[in-house]
Design brief:
mainly alpha; two-stranded antiparallel sheet; about 80% helix
Length: about 290
């Protein structure tokens, strides 16, 4: 029987194979246990939520299509008014896009500094790398809606709390993604600039950013798409924009379903357009061509 030496101790092929099979079985066992725990948690969570809900999920499941049907039927009856309603709510759409654009810009700038200050080999203060990484973790861990609710309580309703909330979450999320890109940057240009006496900002601006700029811009465009949806959602808690108008239209119920349909059309069309445009430019940046 052939023998293989591992770490100075000879082992037969059979013993290595049996050891490998034992490890594979343990992994399958652990995976099965984790899946079982996940299913149990999901089932128990659903049961608790269903018990605390005003109406049971299964009892109301057959009514899931009633609201969309009412909206579509009323919108179809008043279809002649839809162009005017779309024009009426277009300023609210512009406000939503402005919230997303400003918050994305501010968040991208914050994420840029967090990524460079929290990346090994690039950080200006290496001892504080962990601090900047934890700051980034905290900023993206808190949902935008929670931050917005706190800011609305302090500042009142409007687009400013939504913009600040989305910018904070965007800075944390982009800081993480930017940092992963920066870790793969070639350090030779940085070392060359350091040998000439360049400052930290000069090394980052001339040695790192030219390498990572395409990926940074790509991630920023992707985040802009996400922030358009987030700004619309935050409108439901009084943060302005198209979401605020949609909440009001839905709250009135029958009689204003045509307005809700017009807002849905505006929001859906905007998301599709920006998704397509952003995807095209992201492919150009990362792959060199549009798809």
């Amino acid at each position: 029987m052939a023998e293989i030496s591992l770490g100075g101790a000879p082992q037969s092929v059979d013993s290595i194979q049996s050891s490998y099979m034992a490890q594979a079985q343990r992994r399958r066992l652990y995976s099965g246990l984790m899946l079982l725990i996940f299913v149990v948690l999901m089932a128990s969570g659903f049961t608790v939520a269903d018990d605390r809900n005003a109406g049971g999920f299964w009892e109301g499941l057959h009514q899931i299509g009633d609201y969309p049907a009412d909206v579509l039927s009323e919108a179809w009856e008043k279809r002649a008014d839809l162009p005017g309603l779309i024009a009426k709510y277009f300023p609210a759409l512009v406000e939503t896009i402005n919230i997303a654009a400003v918050s994305t810009l501010i968040g991208a700038i914050g994420g840029l500094f967090l990524s460079l200050l929290g990346t090994r080999g690039l950080a200006k203060w290496p001892r504080f790398i962990t601090v900047f990484r934890r700051i980034s973790d905290i900023m993206r861990a808190v949902p935008e809606i929670v931050i917005a609710l706190v800011l609305i309580f302090v500042l009142g309703g409007g687009p400013v709390p939504a913009m600040i909330a989305i910018a904070i979450h965007t800075a944390g999320a982009l800081g993480k993604m930017f940092s992963e890109v920066a870790e793969n940057a070639d350090l030779k240009p940085v070392e060359g600039l350091a040998s000439t006496g360049a400052t930290w900002s000069q090394k980052m601006l001339l040695g790192v950013l030219p390498q990572v700029a395409p990926n940074y811009i790509s991630y920023t465009l992707l985040r802009f798409e996400i922030n358009i949806r987030a700004s619309a959602i935050l409108g439901f808690v009084g943060a302005g924009g198209l979401g605020y108008e949609l909440r009001n239209a839905m709250a009135w119920g029958p009689g204003r379903f045509d307005e809700a349909a017009a807002i849905f059309i505006l929001l859906f069309g905007t998301i599709v357009v920006f998704d397509q445009v952003s995807s095209r430019y992201r492919n150009r940046l990362t792959e060199g061509h549009a798809q």
